[in-house]
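pipeline/complex-builder :: batch 7 item 3
reading input block
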Amino acid sequence: MELKELTISNVRTKLDSQEITAVELTKAYLKQIKKLNRKLKACLTVDEKGALTAALAADKRITAGEKNSLLGIPFLAKDNIMTKGLKTTAGSKILEKYIAPYDATVIHRLKEAGAILLGKTNLDEFAHGSSTEYSAFGPTKNPWDISRVPGGSSGGSAAAVAADMCLFALGTDTGGSVRHPAAFCGVTGYKPTYGLCSRFGLIAMTSSTDVPGILAKNASDAQVVLKTIMGIDKHDATTVTLTQAQFNKNINFRFKGKKIGIPKEFATITLSPEVRKAFDSTIALIKKAGGKIVSVSLPLVPYAVAAYYIITPSEISSNLGRFDALRFGTAPKGSKNLLDYYVQAREKGFGPEVKRRIILGTFALSAGYVDAYYRQAQKIRQAINTDFDQAFKKCDLIVTPSTPSPAFKFGAKKNPLAMYLEDIFSVPASLAGLPAISIPIVSKSLPIGIQLIGSRFEDSKVLAAAEELEKYIGLLPKPKI
Amino acid sequence: MILSEKDIKHIASLARLELTDREVQQYRTELGGILRYVDQLQKVRLKKNISRVEKKLLNVLRSDVVLEWPEAEREQALHQAPDHQGRLLKVKRILN
């Protein structure tokens, strides 16, 4: 079995024809994880026993004739997504020993469908970062070049898909945490519309932009996973139901005769020569497919990163208030009183970037500054929403690079602001809650990501366009690990 | 916006964080850089009618009733606490 050739759709045929069993498939992936994880550190937990039990159950269902797109498909999940009975650390010391008492809705739905959870993947602590260098358990390495970061914060999930440790992986995307590592690792990374997939059981970072996302081998596999995890959930009041007809409306989208927008405001962002070249060749491919390139304007988008780095730390400072080591977390030793207990638990449990964001957010929400910072940022966010609404009157989709450069070396972004600017292309869609995808191109020896952004709830259009573009891009080389 | 050492310490105490002197200096420099960048938001002149939130949003309500939680999950959740007794969490006393 050549793992690198497998996709969800071709494995489906093999499983249904009983050419292979889910147990064989699961064993092959567990073997691959064992072989590569020491080098890459993509996984924090591997659940061999649980995976084999699930695989056995899946085989029974397949033999009984059950048809389900994800039945017997092995996957990994980012370690800030709750998995019942398994450690869920969020990449933080404060949750080092935490075992989730229940499954996140997305995990529950995947398990019900018969997908097989292999384990949990590495991430920047609490998903705060764009390189996995902020993981309390050590960084993940990029499978293309282990001296480089895999991107983040879902770096473990992206590296695992790139290194064939699973057929797909779940991540979370708050400001680009699925699309960014997908671009750096040469895989497909899809962020659904806010509200399409439940956030219940995701360890909250920025509740107003957090979404579960999918890292996959291609856009068609991402769509298969999406169909299983999407839909209303009574545990997340922001979820909505999209009827089959609404979802399928754009499923046959093709570039031919459609308008694809390039925001003119992005023209001032400095791109590395490789990204510039990859982006230009993508534009040529879109034209070849019959798409019309048009210039659109998103006047407030140049302020998106600044607004995001007020809104996000503000929500973080509030969401991370619950980490007091009373209900979960590690108790500090020898504290004088309750206040001292909180302070010591947080001091020892949180890493530097988490503290930086908590302090920044506490400041932005504090008396005297809340109007100038938080409220102003929220107004700009609203204006960015309107900008996108206007732009989508003139085009079907927006295309941008996913990141300004390919994967950087470990330690290259020591300045926190430099790390924040990694999200420059991904943050606008997050602030506006739009569906977006990063698909890979390989330039020389490193992958580059191209991002497609769609209008709210037009996820199937984004996925169909990505699938068509992937066909034009053609077969890509695989990393040599 | 420039934050003083005193500001950083005050904000940290509001967030229930205690910083070493080295951390205070580090965060002062780093946050200074970040605030210089986000200060560009102050210059943005927005149209008067922009509200902070989406107008079309609706509240989702449910009746105020206790929902049953499976015993095994409840046990598992309780066992995540550093200290508990029966069905109660043990914490340090608040009043002396």
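note: Residues 371-394 of chain A form the longest helix (24 residues).
queue -> next item
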